[in-house]
Structure formats: C-alpha cells, structure tokens
Amino acid sequence: MRRLLRSRPTLTQERHRATDFEIFFDLVFVFALTRIIAFMSSPLTFLALAQGLLLLFLLWYSWSPYVWLGNQARADRGVVRAGTAVAMAAIFVTALVIPHAFRRGGGVVDAPLALAISYLVVRALQLGLYYLVTADDRRQRTTLLRFCVPTAMTDAVLVLGALPGPILQTVLWGAAFLIDAVGGRIATNATGWLLRSPSHFAERHGLVLIIALGESLISVGAGAGTAATRGSVLVAALLGLSIAFCLWWLYFERVAPAAGQALGRAAGLRRGQLAADAYTLSHFGAVSGVIFIALGIEQALEHVARRGHPAGAPLSWPSTLALFGGAALYLAGRATLLRLTLRSLPPAQLVAIAVAAALVPAAQALPPLAALGLLTGFLVALCLFEWVGPGQPVPATSAGSNVALPGR
After folding, report:
1. Whole-angstrom Cα distance, residue 277 to residue 281?
2. Distance separating alpha carbons of residues 241 and 333, to the nearest angstrom
3. For 73, which of 9, 87, 304, 340 could close a Cys bridge (C-beta 3.0–4.6 Å)?
4. What is d(CA 164, CA 159) in angstroms, rounded to the nearest whole number?
5. Tens digits of residue pLDDT in 178-230
6. What DSSP designation does 271 have?
7. Are 333 and 286 in contact (CB under 8 A)?
C-alpha cells in the first residue's frame, strides 16, 4: 500500500489510446445506464422520463471526468487505477439502486441518499486524482481548484435533494446539475483544461456510444420475453436491430472520423475547449437518445408480445415520446458535435431533427409495430440520403491526422 501511494502517475502521450481497464470502466457505466430503463418503465410516465433524464445527467457527470483523468495519466497503473476502481464500485452501487432513485424506505439508507453519496464519492475521487496527476502543471491545478467550487455546491444540493419527497427532489436535483454544468463551464472558462491525447478522447466517447448501442439491444430481449418465436414479435425485434444499426451508421460512418480529426487538428486551449463543449455536451445527447430509444423499443415489444398480433392499441404518449424524442435527441447530439468541431452543419440535419420530433403525434396513433416501422423507415431514409447526398461531412484523409476511432 505504501508503495502504491508513493508511485507517481504515468502521464499520457499524444498518441495514447484507450486501455482495457478503461473499457471495463465503461461497461460498468453503461450497465448503470441500462438500469435507468428499468426505472423509467415502472411505470412509464412523463415525470419518469424527466427523472430519467436527471439520472442520465448524474451518471454522465460521473463518467466524463474520468475520461479527462485517463487522458492526463494512464488509468491502468498505480494509484490512478486504484482510485478509479473505487469509483467504479461507487457507480456500480449507483446502478443497483437506480430503480428506486426517487423512493423512500426499504433499506438501511434510502436509495436517493445512496445515489447522492455515491456521486459525491465518485467526484471527490476524481478531483483528488486529478490534483495528483497535475502536480507539475500550475495552470491545470488553478483550473481544478476553480472547478471544485461548483462541484461542491452540486454535491450539497444533491444531498439536500435526497431528503424530501420525489417532486421536490426532482426540482433540487435539476438545479444541482444546472449548477454542475453551467457553473463548471464558467469556472474553467478562463484557464481551460489541457487535453493531451485527442485520439484517446475521441475513442473513449465513440466506445461508450457503441457499447450503449449494443446494450440497448438487451431491451429487445426484455420486451420480447418468452414470446420471441411469434412472427410479429420477431418482426418487431428485427426492426429494433435495424434502428440500432442506423444509429451506428449515422455516427460512425462519417461524423465520428470527421469530428475526431477536427479535434486532432486543434491545439492548446482551443483543443481543451473543443473537447469540453463538443464531445462532453454532444455525446450526452447522443447517449441519452440511445437510452430513450431503447426504452421505447422495449415498450413496443412488450405491447406486441402481450397481444400476439401486429394490430392493437397504440403506444402511450410517454412511450412514443421516448421512441421518437430519443431519435431527435440523438440527432441533435450528432448535429451539435458537427457544428462545434467542423463549424458547419448541413441544413438537412436540422430538418431531420425536426421531422423526428414531428413524427411523435403520428406515431402515437399507430399500432406499436407500425410505430417501430415508421421510425425504422425514417432512419433508413436518412442514412440513404446522407450516403448519396451532397454536402455531408467527409473525414479528412491527411496523413497528419492521428485520431483513431473504434473499428477503424
């Protein structure tokens, strides 16, 4: 233990890539994300959707700081690995209690308080480790100390919000995350963050998105249940797979390489600001969109499996909003990434977001299988348009780019 505490962190280099230990950390994080689906679905209401969004924010700001930490020093060595492992355990505890995130009683510690404490532990560990790895960088330590102010305020409001009833808890936690996001950005605007390896940063965000897409397919199995051999259920399941494939293509085919190479070309404070604004913000929207779409697919499959035939009563408004609103949120996250990294945005992408949102009322009047088919058709049409259409983002092919994305 003494040797571990005395060991110095291994700082990363420009071409650093994601480590196996970080991917393991991401798996635990995405497991926690999928638990939010269980929370929102029992029962699914508009309030549950809003509370689920808050929980997504909580988890995102538990995970994102460790991407920055792993970009500064190797996450799989020494005291950084030990601290990250403890943080992983705290996120795992968070995942276990998420289905009861806004309920009181039933244990030694109420689930809301357990969530708040787990979040506090995760953030405190990251701040401590980041302070350790920036020992030779006065500018970064100044940024970190400023960042501690809104973080401490967030933690205090979170703990306070865990004590009253669910409605007031929702309001206070919403205020806490507003403090965290806006306050953190203001506090660090002057000095900024250092980003050592753009390839590592882009890769981590791409990996967590693709893991989320993979894990979202679990919702297909959960929705189908024991009725998976029925024809209508098989069709619905294949539509769910098609939706996941389209979401993958819309990000990884052109957008991810183009944005990653733009990040690699940036330098100094511009690179850190681009990473914080473009990647942290946009991928929250994209990952949240995947989770909401997975929730909608699960609800649709449960409906089809329960009735045993394609026709039937439409999905509820919250289920339809999760399905198509999630698609709009995903596309908005992707558009934000392009706008901030490439400083341009094809108008067709804004139209796609508007169309996804406008389809909510139409889909709500359709049987669940038809609603899934409508979303699949929309996403397939969007993929085809971007494949053959002009004015779409095309990654640079210059040999100077050192940004690598998953599967490339």
Report:
1. 6
2. 21
3. 9
4. 10
5. 998 888 888 888 788 899 999 999 999 999 999 999 878 887 777 666 566 67
6. H
7. yes
Question: Quick check: bond before 99 cis, omega within 30?
Answer: no
CA 251/CA 17 separation, integer angstroms: 20
Task: Give residues with Cβ within 8 angstroms of 339, minimum separation 6.
Answer: 345
Rounded CA-CA distance 65/380 in Å is 35
Residue from 199, 112, 184, 115 nearest 146 by CA: 184
User: Are the C-beta atoms of residues 271 and 260 closer than 8 Å to each other?
Assistant: no
- Tokens 């538990």 correspond to 62
* Residue-level pLDDT at 213: 92
Burial-class residue 198 by CB neighbours within 10 Å (0-12, 13-18, 19+): buried
What are the backbone dihedrals phi and psi of residue 73, each rounded to the nearest 5 degrees, phi first? -145, 150
Q: Which amino acid is at 214?
A: G
Torsion sign over Cα 15, 274, 206, 260: negative
User: Residue type at 140?
Assistant: Q
pLDDT in tens, 312-330: 688 899 999 999 999 999 9
Write the DSSP string, 324-349.
IIHHHHHHHHHHHHHHHHHS---HHH
Paired with 73 in beta bridges are: 11
Say what the pTM is: 0.91
